[in-house]
Amino acid sequence: MSLAGAPSASRTGRLRDARRLALFTVKRVIALFLTVLVGVYLAIIIANMGGQVDELRMAQIRANISEQVRGDPGFFELPQQERNELVERQIALEVERLNLDQPFILRSVDYLRQAIFLDLGRAEQMHSDHGSRQVYNIIVERLPATLLLFGTANFLVFFTSVFIALALSRRYGSALDRAVIALAPSSAAPGWFYGIFFILVFAFVIPILPAGGMVDVPPPEGTLDYALSILRHMLLPLAAMFVSTIFISIYSWRTFFLIHSSEDYVEMARAKGLPSRMIERRYILRPTLSPIITSFALMLIGLWSGAIILEQVFAWPGLGTLLFQAIGHRDTPVIIGGVVIFAYLLAVTVFLLDILYAVLDPRVRIGTD
């Protein structure tokens, strides 16, 4: 009797788990969507400074149109009234094209609708290297360069710091441990600060590496030569980011592992005579995977948070340089497009982290009974 009821109970349990997972997924997606909605709308308001940027854009449009119209040789042959009317008509057409004739509140809602559906529209001043004015194409063209540089740097920093910190947790008080503690304050300086000195030393005093850019000019034709050229240009910015974060990362994780290495189950493993490597891997590293994955995921999300200055220092053609140029040109669609891509990336990462917590840590459960 009990054997016959076992499959039914198992199916009931699976159905209950599936319902809980579906309900959790719907709730989290709605919550994250609302968060993205509010964040993007605030970005739209801030990017426009409540409409004040539009007034600056109107003045810039008037100046540009006036200069373009006056460049026509036949302009000064017209009577004064016709000149003024011609200028005003051209200005009105440009204002209508940019929808600046509508109230800001209506345009902000329209911006929000387009941003949520990734209809990022056309840039007002900027264009891609292939001539496209679509914001999506502009961002997609620049994003790989940023992901390559900052993604590589963060992978190097993360894995290097975790494994060195794990080794230092069993060598507390050693010379290397004291050296890491002494060098940890060096991470107070950002990566672009070290980058300036690296450029000065390795590009000018000892000219062995390029000072900036992503590839040689003209670009090498062969695939291998092209990849080696990118690698040479990456070395200085990678070194700058690595030096600016590695010591504080090692110090932080070393302290974290020290705390967990004093747990009772770790002491029990040592008392059993288990090898140090096994203790580190199974009893220290595995229980701390959840916060480690969280730190790594948020590190990836924030990989371009400092990209604007660093990419400008190294003339790296990535998303940071694009945002810097967009701010300089007051190109609101490009600025909003960058914020939207970041907001969606953050929401997806947070959602995946919730799932990974339940997979990595058996103490975490999705939903409640």
Keywords:
mainly alpha, 2 domains, 14 helices, globular, MetI-like fold, 369 residues
Verbal overview:
The chain is mainly alpha-helical. It has two domains: 2-116; 142-330, MetI-like fold. It is built from 14 helices and no strands. It has helices at residues 2-48, 52-70, 80-97, 104-116, 135-168, 175-183, 191-205, 223-261, 264-271, 276-285, 289-301, 307-313, 319-329, 332-360. Helix 2 (52-70) packs across helix 3. The two termini are 27 Å apart.
CATH architecture of the largest domain: Orthogonal Bundle
What helical percentage do the residues reach? over 70%
Report the sheet with the most strands, covering strand number, pairing sense and barrel closure.
Answer: none
Q: Detail the poorly predicted runs.
A: none
CATH class (first level) name of the largest domain: Mainly Alpha
Number of domains: 2
Mean pLDDT: 78
Estimate the strand proportion. Answer: under 5%
Count of alpha/pi helices = 14
Name given to the CATH homologous superfamily of the largest domain: MetI-like
Q: Based on DSSP secondary structure assignment, what is the total number of beta strands?
A: 0
Radius of gyration based on Cα positions = 28 Å
How would you sum up the global shape?
globular
Helix-strand pattern, N to C? HHHHHHHHHHHHHH
Note the gap between the termini.
27 Å
Class per helix and strand makeup: mainly alpha
CATH topology of the largest domain: MetI-like fold
